[in-house]
Task: structure prediction
Amino acid sequence: MKQKKIISLLLAATLSFTLLAGCGSKTDEAATDTSTDAAATTTEATEGAGEVREFTAFFAVAGTEINDDNEIQSILAEKTGVKVKETWLTGQTDKEAIGTFIAGGEYPDFIEGGSGTPQLIDAGALVALDDYIAKYPNIKALFSEEDWDKLRQADGHIYFIPQFGTVKNEEKVCTHNDEAFWIQTRVLKWAGYPEVKTMDQYFELIESYQAANPSMEDGTENIPYTILCEDWRYFCLENAPQFLDGYPNDGSVIVDPKTLKIIDYNTTPTAKRYFQKLNEEYKKGIVDPESFTQTYDEYIAKLSTGRVLGMIDQWWNFAFNVNDALKQQGLDAQGCNYVPLPITIEEGINNQWHNSGAVLNVSSGLAVTTSCEDVDAAMKFVNDILAQDLHDLRFWGTEDVDYGVSETGEFFRTEEQRMNASDTAYKASHLCTYSYFPQYTGTSDDGINANRPDGQASEFYDGLHPELQECFAAYDAKTYVDMLGTNEKPGPWYPMWSFSNSLNTTTPGGTSWVKIAEVKHEWLPKIVMAEDYEGAWTDYMEVYEGTEPQAFLGEMQTELDRRMEEAAKYN
Amino acid sequence: MKLLKKNKKKTSLGDKIFYFCNGIFMIAFVIITLYPVLNTLVLSFNDGTDALRGGIHLWPRKWTLKNFETVLTKDNLITGAIITVARTAIGTLLALVTNALLAFIVSRKRFLFKRQLSLFWVITMYVNGGLIPTFLLFKGLGLTNSFGVYVIPGMLSAFNMLVIRTFMNGIPDSLEESAQLDGAGYMTIFLRIISPLCKPVYATVALFVAVGQWNSWFDAMIYNRMRSDLTTLQYELMKLLSSVTNQGGSVENLKNAAGAVTPTSVRAAATIITILPIVMLYPFLQRYFVTGMTLGGVKE
Amino acid sequence: MSLTRKKKEKVNEVPTKITWKEIKRQKVLLFWSFLIVVYGVVFYYLPLAGWVMAFQNYKPKDGIFHSEFIGLAKFEQLFHDATFLRVIRNTLAMGVINLVVCFVTAITFAILLNELQNNNRKKVVQTISYLPHFLSWIIVTGILHGALSGSGIINELLVAFHIIDSPINFFAHPKFFWPIVAFANIWKETGWNAIIYLAAITAIDPCLYEAASIDGAGRWERIKYVTLPGIKPTIIILLLMNVGNVLNAGFEIQYLLGNGLVKSVSETIDIYVLKWGISQGDYAIGTAAGIFKSLVSIILIVVANQIAKHNGEERLF
Result:
């Protein structure tokens, strides 16, 4: 008898559990159906305010969550009456995450879809923002009429607002955030700060320095040149030919500005020469033999020891980690910091490693979803946080806590404040940049300060080690950008990568584009390591042709023509 | 134990060599296995920027508690820990009861659909409808945005069932037969006769399920994304580590996210925090499968 | 042991006839089975409706029910792609290698651990052995990469013992890739996989050991004639289950350890699916590959199960 009781108890427990779970979720659904009510009731966190409304946001990119009681977020909530709970992509691809949202049909209020954005538009998940943009002056002011039109989708509506690439007033840039041939200042100093203009000169300099100084002060052997080519980061190896020929970073192709024709930079004579050079240097032992097998972590570790004399890379890919490590060990005093060099294949070609001005990303941005109950309030918030005082709060922090103001009204930070700004825990509890909401670079409305600390020239220069200052002075430069010189935006098509990024395997060109990457990833290391370079290059070209690059180039040409046609309407 | 001692007396030269080699092997094994764990522990106490340089093996170069501070001050960590403990406890209990029951049924010799029911479950191990259909199903069942999604869907698994079944198959039929002669029903046999003998395998399966529950975060992200009160410990840690599956993001996106990736040392600290409770739980389960059980007493 | 086994088989061969009397007798069992089957249908079989995606040009907008039907086009696309055939080979090769080495090491380890005389030592060793299971692949592969790099410990040892003249860059040679993956799996999972066998060993009747000792059996004989036969059912069941898993050779480890130079041997089906399916927003390809894997798995286990049945061993169903 007892057993029966136990069984029935168990059964009852299991059943009621299932039922409970069912009921629980039903009430939840009801709550999300009227999400604004739910949002409005979850204001307990911001005590007393009562009026603060909570929106949710999902960004299909990697990012760091901030704490619920974040201080600046609370201040912003007080001033705008809105708080946004942000979540980021974790352990999924953007398309996967967006796909799940669409299947479920429930969305957060704000969304950044990354490369899943077309899917969102297709599924009717996004609110057309045209009318709202007209209504909010700060949002409207973000882009020119021409740029807004570029953002219109096939149905003529605007569904998202790009967050980046908006320069306000005068541009203020100190760091070259992009790709370059980098070299340690100690190499330049040793050679008496020579002019280095071509790839051959660059490697010659490294070779002669290495011959004279095979090791660092503490006896660690130098690594003359290393190449990162782990997975998608293999741009460090593959895309230099476009720059060497004096073209800007269109990413996937070269655009000839005169004929407006697409050129494939993988097969140019320059490409062949560049890889041949790497092949020669590899045989001489100048190129790190671990180049093609190292992971990103190992690469960063190598750079952080100060052993590596030079490499090609994007600034954001190494500098944030490496510079701190070098500083901590006092290696900046030994001249281990990296500066970019204006290198081309031959002398006399104008280099375009650095381009000024805004780059409009027409493929994704901040969007408001159909699940948002009050689009007006959401857009008002986006508008509000673009106002100069709130923008300062987002990117500089609170006055006297995160930065000081000099008598002339210039913002400055102490060493401690700089450290805080890069501290994970401090950022989570104190700073709130709403980093995937629209924002500005350039100059503040006060005409003095940069919109972000990294654009503040005085702030930037103070943070530099004397070795770097000396090096800059030798080249008559004040910033990294001055080392390379700057160029105007090359043309209205720029940048073509915003199109190739959105390609997928549904078109022949998209398929070819994926295949090209596959082939290059496998073959470029092979040809650099080849005994017989000529033979390897021929083999490579044969396999390369097998990917039908013409399909890809054709689609790029069509897009280029379309962009030029669009642009012509505004002239 | 007595038995072992008796054996010892009789150890031949061959046995001595065996014990010696075995000892050496175990020491080597322990060293090789322990290294990654120790290295992680050491990294968790080392300064993050300094660790970037690499070359840290068995002793921190630059001590710090900062990594643990970063992890432990993570928002919602407490909520996540409570939910995780709850799902581990409830989920393990539910899974143990249901898997044992199913294993009991399919290990009965006379059961009518023995083969069919086994096959039905074996197939589930190798088929998978995919993320989106599963999501739609859970939504339809009202499991999204609820605690139930943590413990109900994975409750029964063919793997665990088969492990228990194999063990039950080894129990002599005579036990069941004699109990039936005494008038005991199937449930009495299950609860009173079979289950007490299955402690080692129950402990094993409990460990498997508990570890699975403890480590899972994907369900929290997919089904309860907007419910921060239902977050789990591992999901919070995953978010902190902002583990980038780089494949999908464009370079431009990553450019903007640069610096958002947390250092290895914080990852190490998070790992240590994850392992610790399991290490402490283990000794309680371990006695079931290291000391050995004496089945002789209950055998006929 | 062998005697009882034979007796059991005979019972197995004669299924109980379905009669009202039997149904009445087993009503408790049938009742619970029914609930369990309902559960299984809902949670495991219902989502299989999603397989229809493989035959569709699936668009999230249209959902599963309204996407355009394209028949077997995606399967044709898969099997006409030389790369897909190559990734099947890689997956199978790594799957089989991992299956074999992980089995052997886990069983060996469990038996040897059981042979340790001191119980405390036994406990300590076991606790340590399963810890690496909790480290993520990114940590384990990071350490492995360090150990096998040009200046890593392995190369240093090899050079010190004059086995090689100059450091080998292990990750640059395709021939080393599969062994490295196998080693990484052993390193991480041996202790964890051994847990099941240790549990099975505890179920062996100590009297059998005693009897064997009396018959003058040494350590080796006891392992051979008592321990191994005692855990044989567990071994067979796990082997059968894992045979169905050879196409799930993994994703993370190959992804983290691979590089351009070893691409031809490192890419698995899962990596292929990610590259050509998921990251392209093409769900059909992923689903088609999933169906392919499921079919192969089911065929494999049915065959393996028949072999087990034929040999009178424990079997899955």
